[in-house]
Design brief:
mainly alpha, 0% strand
Length: 176
């Protein structure tokens, strides 16, 4: 009985050089993917930031300007949709900007809203949106100011609370 020993080269572990080469390729690929995700996030941030302003401006124009040839009267459904869009943009901005957590202010008083203070609440929302977008922290991205970061976080929190309260009120009014 004869036995022949053969070596199978298909099962030999990769050499150290090959392993390092593969590791470099994987690292480069991961770095490219990370850069791509950063670019996508930056585009998303810019778009959300821009749309927050546009939607807010359109909403305030249609609520406060009298109907005319250029400004149509706004329906409660359109108000609710606009508030929902502002709310979703504000949520994404809060998440993506990684702003500090802030203590929520007192909840918006629903009774005060029902007592005819709805227009003033829309003005408070407009003020919060404008203060957020005009925050100097967004003009000088390389400068980090803790006070301005907290202010931006507070403004976004206020926007989220106001849009939530206003949407509930508009929804209730539509049911009546």
């Amino acid at each position: 009985m004869l036995l022949f020993a053969t070596v199978s080269y298909g099962q030999i572990p990769a050499s150290r050089d090959q392993a390092l080469g593969n590791l470099r390729i994987n690292v480069n690929s991961a770095e490219r993917e990370l850069e791509r995700e950063k670019r996508i996030l930056l585009v998303t941030l810019k778009e959300d930031f821009r749309q927050l302003q546009i939607i807010n401006n359109e909403l305030m124009t249609r609520i406060f300007l009298p109907p005319s040839k250029t400004v149509e009267p706004i329906t409660p459904k359109e108000i609710s949709v606009s508030l929902g869009e502002i709310q979703s943009r504000a949520r994404r901005l809060k998440l993506n900007f990684r702003l500090p957590e802030v203590e929520p202010e007192n909840r918006v008083n629903q009774d005060a809203l029902r007592e005819g203070k709805l227009p003033s609440t829309f003005l408070i929302l407009d003020e919060a949106v404008m203060r957020f977008v005009d925050n100097p922290i967004f003009q000088q991205l390389r400068v980090v100011d803790a006070r301005l970061s907290v202010q931006a976080a507070e403004d976004l929190d206020k926007i989220l609370r106001l849009t939530d309260s206003l949407r509930k009120l508009v929804r209730e009014d539509r049911k009546q």
